[in-house]
Design goal:
about 180 residues; three-stranded antiparallel β-sheet; about 55% helix
Length: about 180
């Protein structure tokens, strides 16, 4: 599970899109429209063309679990590029991170750098929103996304844009209990 990646996806979907179709008929109709016919949909889902036609007409309503999972996965995969284009636009306004996590940091000797649970809701500047989305789109794993998020919290929350904690070297997430993004 990708906590940061899934959180970014959820924020974008919540902010910008109507939800992807949830039932089999609308999902099939969407795929038929995207792929240009019932035959390519049938081949992709490994079912007969006639079965696809029956879903499109509403003659079959409930797919078996394995087909339902494939259908949802294929619809969501095609829904995402539309969402991503809108996410890039969001990068110009910044992103809000709401997290309850154990955060620690590396600082000079004599400071309290003990990891502790914090609940933070912080508006991150557009540069960090852009970096998060670009890294996710490039296939970065959750560890890299966490590094970018921690770097953003270091600058915005801990150092307050350069007004304090100037000697702070590194911030890190250790145990994340809750993580949510909002655009």
């Amino acid at each position: 599970m990708s906590l940061f990646g899934d959180g970014l996806d959820a924020a974008v979907q919540k902010a910008f899109t109507r939800p992807a179709p949830k039932s089999a008929g609308p999902q099939m109709r969407y795929l038929v429209k995207q792929l240009g016919g019932t035959k390519p949909v049938a081949q992709m889902l490994r079912i007969s063309q006639r079965t696809v036609e029956r879903y499109v007409k509403g003659q079959i309503k409930r797919p078996r679990p394995h087909l339902a999972a494939r259908l949802e996965r294929e619809v969501n995969k095609r829904w995402q590029p539309q969402i991503r284009a809108k996410a890039k636009a969001a990068a110009t306004d910044g992103i809000v991170i709401d997290t309850r996590a154990r955060l620690g940091y590396t600082a000079p000797i004599g400071s309290t750098d003990q990891d502790r649970i914090r609940h933070l809701t912080v508006a991150l500047p557009p540069v960090y929103a852009a970096r998060l989305f670009e890294a996710q789109e490039a296939g970065a794993g959750d560890a890299r996304l966490q590094e970018i998020g921690a770097e953003a919290l270091k600058e915005v929350y801990f150092q307050d844009g350069g007004r304090r904690a100037g000697s702070l070297e590194e911030v890190r997430f250790t145990d994340i209990e809750h993580l949510e993004f909002d655009l």
